[in-house]
Structures are given as C-alpha cells and as structure tokens.
Amino acid sequence: MLSVFSSLYAGNLMYYSSILKAEKVTIDLFENFHKQSFRNRCSIASPNGILNLIIPINRKSKSIIKEVKIDDSQNWRKIHWKSLESSYRSSPYFEFYEDQFHSIFFKQNCNYLFEFNQLIFQEVLKALKVEIKVTFTDSYIQKNNTIHDFRTLIHPKIQLDNQLKELKYHQVFQEKQKFIPNLSVLDLLFNEGPLARQLLLQ
What we know:
With 202 residues, the protein is of the alpha/beta class. The protein has 7 helices and 8 strands.
C-alpha cells in the first residue's frame, strides 16, 4: 500500500520510523503549506530543553509546498547550524556526520523549502544506510482507503503512540533534563550513529 508523507525539515523519529516501515513512499508536493507544522520546523535538544529551529519562508496564502520559497534575507542558516553545534558538539557522532550536513546548510543553493528538505532527507537516508525509492506526487492526493496518509498524523499537536514513547536512547543533556522523545532524526543520529536505523525499526 502507498504511504503519503509531507516534506519535512529534518523530520522527527515518527516520520522516519514510518518511512522505513512503509511499502511504498511518496511525498506530496501539492498539499497546502501549513503553519506551525514540521514542514519548516524541527525540534532538537538544546542545553535549555527543546529548541525549535524554524526556516523563515516567503509565501502567499494557501501556497502549495512545492512553491514555498525560503526567505534568505534572514541569517537562519548560520543560526540553525550554530544551534546544532552548541547542542551536539559533545555528542558521540556529531563530527562523523558534520561535513555532510554542514555542506547542505552552506554550500547547496536551494531557493525552495522542499528542495532543502529533500537534501536533508537524502543525507539522513544515507546516514541510516537505507535505500528507499521515493516518488513525488504530480497532483494532490485526496484521503482515501487505499493509502496510508501520514500528512496530518505527523504534527506537533499529535500525541505519540506507545511504541515511539518507548524508543529511548542516550541524549547529550540527559543528566540534567529528562529524556525528550520524538525529536528531529538528527538528535538520534548524532547520539547513536550506526544504531539509529535499528532503533527506528524496533
């Protein structure tokens, strides 16, 4: 069965766990952009708790995700990378993946949000050592009984299922703050490295 996903910025563990377990994956480029969603936001564990990194965008009302442009008038790339550095520099695997992700933030010339998201997505799959054939929609797919629709399921306001609540691993600041579930997949990669795939599939 086909599973339909949104284009997310360094998607969370629910996103990648669902993608790794799906039979067929397609990303909807024709859905409307939703504010306060993970499409241009990811959550990481900072020294002060959860930190939301938000990509500024230029958009008209009811823009489809394929047409949403990044607002590079703001220095968000440097800010986001500095936040990742300060949060994960002491993690076991940050240096192992650092060059690949740094290149995406500073050397790739992406004007559109979905392009940037897709570069992160491909680098994450490479780091997880999985090969998944991903297709993109050429029109909006209506909800129906023949697809698994994750577009509204993976959202900041949707509660985790029990399986993901039990997915725990060591986080950098765990000694002074409680474990934070379902953060960006970058948190899992920088902390667990090669074990990340196994944890997402358990």
